[in-house]
């Protein structure tokens, strides 16, 4: 399952980051690391960005990036 498919307020953990090394490095700097607990906070309409809660923060990323991050339910 990917972050883009995660239901709102359902807790999951990150199991894989994107294969693109530059994108993965940018996500790591923002706190998206493997085994981190994450949940969907908000989804913008019309395939807009998605906001996620992790490390007591809300971070917004593009849906196309969220589709490249694999997660597992906790």
UniProtKB/TrEMBL annotation:
Q: Which InterPro entries match?
A: Fe-transptr_FeoA-like (IPR007167)
Do you know which SMART domains this protein is assigned to? Answer: FeoA
The Ferrous iron transporter FeoA-like domain covers: 1-73
What is this protein identified as?
Ferrous iron transporter FeoA-like domain-containing protein
Species for this entry: Colwellia asteriadis
